[in-house]
Amino acid sequence: MSEQAPLRLLVTGASGQVGGELVRALAPLGAVIAPTRAEMDLADTASVRAFIREIKPDWIVSAGAYTAVDKAESERDLAFAINADAVRVMGEEAKSIGASVLHYSTDYVFNGLGTTPYVETDTTGPLGVYGASKLAGEQALLSSGANALIFRTSWVYGATGKNFLRTILKYAREREELRIVNDQHGAPTWSRDLARMARHVIARCESGDRSADLSDIYHASGAGETTWAAFAEEAIRQLRQGEPAAKLAKVTGIPTAEYPTPAARPANSRLNCGKLEAAFGWKMMDWRESLSNVLNEFE
Question: Which position among 66, 108, 118, 130 bears the catalytic label?
């Protein structure tokens, strides 16, 4: 394909945080096809195969996923169907038509016991079903033989959708105190930054940096690091700057042990993104800067 030819880009999960941003971000590159669940059901491999064969995309941008971390513990089959089986089929079909795949994965493939930011070659060890299903998806995609770029990210949020920030901003106005975990470390990642990164990567691949040569796993999370409690504190601090008269909740940090959940969370979700920058010249936005941008969208 020539550099100027418009691409056909299949985006899964278009109703989600990252998928919605991808539909807008990728539009300059060509025709973006964003199927509904009725058109392409990620829980049904036959549906996935049929849709890909029908539209014959140049790129499959895989943002759709089963992300209910706690619910996955009791819905293992569904989590694996969406996060592993569907991704395997995407790889197989991409391989057969010469398409490339850009797939999003997660820090949950690690056990969180590391003391430094994880690099791509560190040993994986998911703590729960969600992480295990995402890891299985990574492995299946890489084994498919397709040109595949996998981007692990963490703590995704934005101005729309269901996410930690939106929940915190709601409760900050309704309660006097918010008790939030302060011993899980990571970096919030703006959904729009992930979408812009995808556009940049695809454009680079199409301009001559062929994806076949770059097929691999990369880390792509917000720059810097924080805890959930500190993230909430910073969000409320920035919110208070714009609304000095508002009565907003105080954040109290608590250990994970005081907030039990069906699925264990990694204590260390930090990801080293140096490989992404070296390969594609893309640096993820610092989480404080992205937070400011997202909060401005609420105004």
Answer: 130
